[in-house]
Design a protein that fits this description.
This protein has about 290 residues and is an alpha/beta fold. The chain is built from 10 helices and 11 strands. Strand 6 and strand 7 form a beta hairpin.
Length: about 290
């Protein structure tokens, strides 16, 4: 039996996550007290037919969290079944807005802003121990479901997965990124007329970007660093690492570097690639050109 403990900030989407996990075949229980964790898992173990996947939401609505989140960690460590922890996070501003829109009372304080700060401090140790962290600040429920589906296999936890992404700084840094690399140190292909409407996926742009010796050295350095870091992350129970490359618009330099790193790392570990702002930048360029 595989156990996924779902925790995180109140208002960050735990209910939506449980609904998605239920659709994925998990037996889901919301707001389980820490002290009942072991007993509940034992009950699941004895159930026929055998329960293979369980998702348990445990958060600050459970009164023991107002004293210490260590009790959850102690209860989890006492389990005889394999477990992992998913932490759902969200920016303070969006959490406060959500509480204002729903007019619900925050479980930690009558004032939502104060409650959010109290809860964040309380849950820091859980976030540090989490195998998965999802920031739902800019996510819709369907996007959260898709993220969970890509993160978890039908039989339990995925093996370690590397996600490589590109982005444009003018639209902000990806909130879930673990490692962020700035590509704005090298010449921008945007200012070359023949390259402006191409992207980092096109060979002329890649040739232009990697003509810079610093870029080639950067690629070698991050490749070797990841090959050293990934086994260490796995040893600490981490299951995913997100490496993000940024440039001004997220179309040329960051895309070229992300593509190059993906080609190097895909044989080392399971890897995926995403170009967050490529479609937006293409639309921006077309709009400027037509105007």
């Amino acid at each position: 039996m595989y156990i996924l403990i779902v925790t995180g900030m109140s208002g960050a989407g735990k209910s939506n996550a449980l609904r998605a996990l239920e659709d994925m075949g998990y037996l889901c229980v919301d707001n389980l007290p820490c002290d009942l964790l072991s007993s509940f898992v034992e009950l699941c173990r004895e159930t026929e037919p055998h329960i293979e996947r369980v998702a348990l939401a445990i958060d600050s609505r459970t009164s023991v969290f107002r004293h210490s989140s260590d009790r959850l960690l102690q209860a989890a460590e006492a389990l005889k079944e394999p477990y992992e922890m998913l932490f759902l996070d969200c920016s303070n501003e969006v959490l406060q807005r959500r509480y204002g829109e729903t007019r619900r009372r925050h479980p930690m304080h009558e004032d939502a802003a104060a409650g959010i700060l109290i809860e964040r401090e309380l849950l820091n140790s859980l976030k540090e121990r989490a195998n998965y962290i999802i920031d739902t600040t800019d996510m819709k429920p369907r996007e959260l479901q898709q993220e969970l589906e890509s993160m978890l296999s039908s039989g339990g936890a995925m093996p370690f997965r590397l996600k490589i992404t590109s982005f444009g700084y003018k639209r902000g840094i990806p909130r879930n990124a673990d490692i962020v690399m700035d590509m704005r140190y090298t010449a921008n292909p945007f200012y070359e007329t023949s390259l402006r409407n191409l992207s980092g996926k096109d060979e002329p742009v890649r040739d232009y970007v990697f003509a810079d010796a610093n870029v080639r050295a950067h690629l070698d350095s991050i490749t070797e660093s990841l090959k050293m870091l990934i086994p260490a992350y796995m040893g600490e129970g981490k299951r995913r690492l997100i490496v993000a490359f940024g440039c001004t618009g997220g179309r040329h330099r960051s895309v070229a570097m992300a593509e190059a790193l993906f080609e190097r790392m895909r044989s080392f570990c399971p890897a995926t690639i995403e170009h967050r702002d490529l479609i937006y930048e293409a639309n921006d360029i077309t709009s400027r050109f037509n105007s």
